[in-house]
Amino acid sequence: MELLDFARGPAISVALAIFVFGTVWRLVALFGLPRMHDLSVPRPGTPGPIVAGTKEIFRRMWPRHEFSQLSMFSFLNGYVFHIGLAIIVFAFAPHILFLKGLTGLHWPALPNNVVYAVGAITVISLLAALIHRLTSPVLRLISTMNDYFSWFITLLPVVTGLMAASHLGARYETLLAIHILSVCALLIWFPFGKLMHAFLIFISRGTTGAFLARRGIQF
Amino acid sequence: MTETDTTLGAELVRRGVSRRALLQYASVVAAQMMLPASAARTIAAELAKVHRQSVIWLSFQECTGCTESITRSFSPTLEDLIFNFISLDYHHTLQAVSGEAAEQARETAMKENKGKYIVVCDGSVPTLDGGVYSTIAGRTNLDLLHETVENAFAVVTVGTCAAFGGIPHAKPNPTGAESVASLVKDKPVINISGCPPVPEAMTGTIAYVLSLGRIPDLDHLGRPMAFFGETIHDRCYRRPFYEKGYFAKSFDDEGARQGWCLYEVGCKGPVTYNACATVKWNSGVSFPIQSGHGCLGCSEPDFWDRGGFYRPLAASTSTKTGMYVGGAAAAGALAGLVATTVARKRKSAAVASMAQPAPEKAESKEG
Q1: Do B234 and B222 share a domain, yes or no?
Q2: pLDDT tens per residue, range A115-166
Q3: Are residues B236 and B224 in the same domain?
């Protein structure tokens, strides 16, 4: 069995299984946890938890005026690579075919050259995020190996994908196999590291919003 | 002058082929083999001096498609003349003699051209159960191969069966079929893979060996770089549609008729190295993708077992992914429920212990 056969066959199947196992495990464990009953009396006139939580989710999508100068780069750069990653994963024809093979669903793709350009911008944006993290004293202080490894495992499929598309460094089938294996690594790490925020970020923001609203905190 | 003393130059003159035509052919060979233009003159001069090359063609587990392909190359061309010029001393399909006389022809060629003859093989070699699944003149293919290549100058495998095992090697491989390249270790082996191979890859390689007396540059699978250096996809005329994201969704749909890329219907062009898209077939008329079918990847090892001809390259080849993922989801849910139950029990225990005062503290208060 050649490397590409291994990547397209058992490797991606096992990686997907681990991804699903870890994600379901964490979500079921999280939602099944015993809830702390808030015995405090809600402040009068405050919205219900769903409205407050939803408002908080949207409010946190843009920096507050007071912190705009300080955190604007993180916000904008974050949008660039998150949207970039979404375009790469969901708008590149071969990726759509991969997802179609798994789910049966498919949709129109963007031209390859557009996706390649988005890929290059995403790599630059991810590198900028790392430099920002390393040069900011506060961010550096609160960063752990989990953050750096999650960054690396996110960057890897984008770089290997661009290398495969441009036949850079090795034969195409080898680069394609390395690209698929890097996606496997991402899938395996996803539920157990910081990348899980993809599933949890809106839950945590909503919960925080509901909690603060009950105490009458207004932004 | 005996037949083997005849030079190719003399033979071409006898057939009325001009020196200009030979030079033109040499230029084509030089271009095909990625040699500088100046090499054309050397190739032409050396080809003219070449004596009839003894070739022993061994056919093992094969369908004769490779021979059919080569004998139906651009006839009548210089490639054809060179093919005819070779002293083909043994070839099941083409030889007139049969039985013991045929085997005697092979043995005579081996004896008279010791160390100089080329062995061409098509078909894979069965190795299971002593190789009994294919025999010639009562001898196994394996035995015949070892005996014939022992004093050969080089071995050329023609077709994917000989080069990589091909269809007989496909799962479950009931005859234990092996490629010739995996069985011959002490001779230079040139693999001209394909099912069947491009005829010009065969004749061009032979012309190169005859004129320059050495083995051409080979890739990591032993194939001449000149013909197997680029993927079908890289040289495909449908490639611009791939880049634009225009894909035929099924055979004979509007996209397919417009010549859009066949990636979605399983084309293996991106991982297949061959000259089909450039040299093409039948005097450069067409090749499979041009006639509307995706590349099967037939010049690559194990092409038969790579997850199906019509499954896109981007899709997983595993047929059990759904089962794995379903099982993983169930196992994940179970693990989550166990974790929740443990957390709830811990909380209940903690609440219970907080509700009752510690006995020691109570005692000390009393004291």
Answers
A1: no
A2: 999 999 999 999 999 999 999 999 999 999 999 999 999 999 999 999 999 8
A3: no
How far apart CA B150 and CA B268 sit, in angstroms, is: 37
Q: What 3-state class would DSSP assign to B221?
A: coil
Provide ipTM, 2 decimals.
Answer: 0.85
Residue A26 forms contact with B (CB below 8 Å): yes
Distance, in Å, from the CA atom of B109 to the CA atom of B281, rounded to the nearest integer, reads: 32
Q: Mean of the pLDDT values across residues B62-81?
A: 70
Residues B251 and B283 in one domain: yes
Cis peptide bond N-terminal to A47, omega within 30: no
3-state secondary structure of A185: helix
C-beta atoms of A8 and B307 within 8 A? yes
Contact pairs from chain A to chain B, CB under 8 Å: 138
Q: Give the span between the Cα atoms of B215 and A93, in whole angstroms.
A: 41
Q: Are residues B247 and B236 part of one domain?
A: yes
Judgement on whether residues B205 and B310 belong to the same structural domain of the protein: no
Unique residue bearing structure tokens 């991402």: A186
Domains of chain B: total: 2
A172 close to B (CB below 8 A): yes
> pLDDT category, B149, cuts 50, 70, 90?
very high
B237-248 per-position pLDDT tens digit: 999 999 888 999
Residues of B with CB below 8 A from A17's CB? 324-325, 327-328
For residue range A167-209, what is the model confidence (pLDDT) as tens digits?
A: 888 889 999 999 999 999 999 999 999 999 999 999 999 999 9
Residue B344, min C-alpha distance to chain A (Å): 6
**Pair B153, B39 in one domain:** yes
Q: Which of B192, B213, B228 is the last residue of a domain?
A: B228
Residues 6+ apart with CB under 8 A from B44: B19, B22, B23, B25, B26, B211
Q: Which of B233, B263, B344 sits opposite A34 (nearest CB)?
A: B344
pLDDT band at B1 (very low <50, low <70, confident <90, very high): very low
Question: How many separate domains does chain A show?
Answer: 1
Task: Residue B142: name the closest of B108, B176, B116 by CA.
Answer: B176
Same domain, B222 and B234: no
Inter-chain residue contact B244 with A111, CB threshold 8 Å: yes
CATH number at residue B306: 4.10.480.10
Domain hosting residue B183, numbered range: 3-228
Q: Does A59 touch chain B (CB under 8 A)?
A: no
pLDDT tens digit string along A52-74? 999 999 998 888 888 888 889 99
CATH number, domain with residue A146: 1.20.950.20
